[in-house]
Amino acid sequence: MTDYLVVLESAWVIKDVRSVDDAIGIAISEAGKRLNPTAKFVDVEAGVIACPSCDEELPCALLIARTALVGMRMEMKVFKADSSEHAGRIAKSVVGKALRDVPLEIVEVQEL
User: Fold this and answer.
1) Is pTM, for the whole model, over 0.70?
2) What count of other Cβ atoms lies within 10 Å of the Cβ of residue 72?
3) Tens of pLDDT, residue by residue, the chain (112 residues)
4) Which class for 95: exposed (0-12), middle (13-18), buried (19 or more C-beta within 10 A)?
5) For residues 50 and 56, what is the distance between their CA atoms, to the nearest angstrom?
6) I want to staple 27 with a disulfide (CB 3.0 to 4.6 A). Which of 8, 12, 51, 106 is the partner?
7) What is the per-residue DSSP string for the chain?
8) What is the C-alpha separation between 98 and 19, in angstroms, rounded?
9) Angle, vertex CA 36, rays to CA 85 and CA 82, nearest 5
10) Residues with Cβ < 8 Å from 47, sequence gap 6 or more?
11) What whole-number distance in Å separates Cα of residue 74 and Cα of residue 96?
């Protein structure tokens, strides 16, 4: 049995927001509140995306008509998993229970 670091990606919708920075702050805050009682060990941060022309990192958020879609990155350590696939399923299950109706995708699994 091995320990793993699992990175998940999620999409968060924020309504009635005026700026991308506000949307990112609200998304991180809401995710933290929903994760706090059962999965407070999950690290939440805003996702980043590389600019296709200059390779500069940009925040992963889109704001249209005061509604934002924020890409978020969540990291969780999984201890004593049978394999990397098992660790990914465990992380997705734990985070998914706390964040119902939020799409999640496993981005990376690293052995610790």
Assistant:
1) yes
2) 23
3) 889 999 999 999 999 999 999 999 999 999 888 888 777 788 888 888 887 888 888 888 999 999 999 999 999 999 999 999 999 999 999 998 888 888 999 999 999 8
4) buried
5) 6
6) 12
7) -EEEEEEEEEEEEEES-S-HHHHHHHHHHHHHHHHHHHHTT-EEEE-EEE-TTT--EEESEEEETTEEEEEEEEEEEEEEESSHHHHHHHHHHHHHHHSTT--EEEEEEEE-
8) 27
9) 20
10) 9, 59, 60, 70, 71, 72, 73
11) 11
Q: Which two tokens stand for residue 33?
A: 């509140």
Find the length of the chain: 112
Query: What residue has token string 């700026």?
Result: 19
| Amino acid occupying residue 92 | K
